[in-house]
Amino acid sequence: MELSVGIASQTTSHIRVYHIPSGVLVTQLSELYGLIYEIKFHKDGLMCAAVGDGSVPIWNFNTWNLVCKLSHPSYIYSASFSPKTSTVLVTAGFDRVIRIWRKSRDTSETLAYSVIQELSGHNSHITKVLFDAEAGFLFSGDHIGCIKVWEGPEVKDPNMLESSTDSYQQAPEINWSFRREYHVENPICNLSLHPGGRRLLVHRINPTDPLSMIDLRNGTFMQKYQDIQTFRVPGSSCISPCGTWVLAGSNSGYTILLNTDTGIKKHVYSNVAYSGPVSAVQFHPMENALAIASSQPFSKVHFFMYDKAKDAKLIEDQKILSTPREEKSKYPFNQVAKLIAEKSMEERATKLPSLPVDLQDIVAKLNNAIREQKLSMQANAASNQEYFTTNTEEKEN
Prior knowledge:
The longest helix is centred in the C-terminal third of the chain and has 38 residues, at 359-396. The protein has helices at residues 308-322, 333-349, 359-396, and strands at 2-8, 13-19, 25-28, 36-42, 46-51, 55-60, 65-71, 76-81, 88-93, 98-106, 111-119, 126-131, 137-142, 146-151, 177-183, 188-193, 199-204, 211-215, 221-225, 236-239, 245-249, 255-259, 265-268, 278-283, 289-294, 302-305. The protein is elongated. The N and C termini lie far apart (87 Å). It is an alpha+beta fold. The chain has 3 helices and 26 strands. The protein has 2 domains: 2-316, YVTN repeat-like/Quinoprotein amine dehydrogenase (Methylamine Dehydrogenase, Chain H, 7 Propeller), CATH 2.130.10.10; 339-396, no CATH class.
């Protein structure tokens, strides 16, 4: 398992790759002349980065060789591969244009992508673009709070977003078209699509209410997530691959794990408290792991892995601690056992055949034993009281 981290200096940026869980540096990639806004992987063995110098470099993460670099006329804030195939790539940034690229050449050492379509319509710079799970729809968000949905060329469902099983088949001529839009008023920092396909997590610049879940069927807010503050970019949030959890970072420097459906806080990562804003949070797509990072200078990246054995032991310990202690029983089990044993010994001594235990006789003897014990306790109490009274009188004299 490997983790890629974007690091910026005063003049340049670069990407460092670490082995997980050892934390050993694997490689440091070539310098980039702008801030790194986003890093994306594809299962085909490629990694791309959206860079502020107007480029989108692409590496082969098996060899970490640079295989291609896509040039743009302005800053690029977001780039993403199609989930279905790495031959299709989308980029967007400051010039308000979404560019869809397709691989035109593929050799053992180099790749070549060319623009096959440009989508325009945003009135401010675009901060985020992403495909849905089936690459049938494309979502884009801008700095004035407008979210646009673009439809792929082979979408079969005419009602769109009424089903999460729509599919996209690569066609000879790509022809993406505008489908609909939503307005959320504040500048958009990040978008994350729920695995179910019908909900979109929207992270906005808002000091009190930045994080909300939108129902894509009607554009209404389904759920709002509290205790997150976002005063400026970057804003970091994502949904777990299973769709159960929302992980969100605050400009205040802390990270919260929330339930997707209820918005209830599950955990606050108080041991990861930065003095600057949390700039990136991400779940691993296959493993039960997550990473948290900050734009604070000289800060560390924290990586967490779920330990099933430790969690099971913790649950077991909680069960043990929560079990109420039983009071010592007042029933004289030892005396009952002694009486039954004596009765058995008497039968053996008389060489009589084994007879059923006479319960009435045992109950009578048990009552006598309890009565004698109570009388003994009362006598002891009276003796103690008399002793206390005598000592008190002697002291007074």
